[in-house]
Amino acid sequence: MSNRSYRGLFVAEGTSDLPLAEIVEALFFERGCSVQLSSPDFSLLSNKVKKDVTSKLSAGVKLMGAMPDLVVVHRDSDNVDPATRREEIHDGARLADVSSRVIPLIPVRMTEAWLLLDESAIRHVAGNPRGRVDLGLPKVHEVESRADPKKILSDCLVRAADATGRRRRTVEERFFNHRRQLLERLDPFGPVTRLSSWQTLLQDIDETVKRWQEEQ
Known about the structure:
alpha/beta, 216 residues, 4-stranded parallel beta sheet, single chain
């Protein structure tokens, strides 16, 4: 374990994605690196922060009060090639005059795809851990090619709850809360490691750790 602790900035697409910061910290810790990621509260600023990468990074660095050692930017690829998203993030960092190491965190196609790999967690979060209804979850090799993982996850949560009437509506309305719980339960060393988007993240982390070790 390195004696130095690195300060980082984590910029997510939305507040329900914030648990990803702890997962990234855990991946660095496994590699002998202590990283503390701060997630900016843009509401503390007088002016509303735009949603583009440059604006978020500029505001995040301002809130931190100093240039961080690392910047992690979470951005779904959606219907865009992940390589294009990576370029967008790196360009945004340059325009924001960010001199930190930059790690793009880009799920294919959406973060929800990562959450479709743990049937037990889905049943638990849906409030019916012993349910037996077939959830129709995609296979690991299919999950990154499915068109709308958010809709698939929402439908799976409803099926997992195996509820009707008011309780079914409650499950539907609590989707983003359930989604956040699933992110908190995401096993960074489990089935997600078989996905190309996750493997790219690990490569970026490995490269960052290597650079830091060389600089010591």
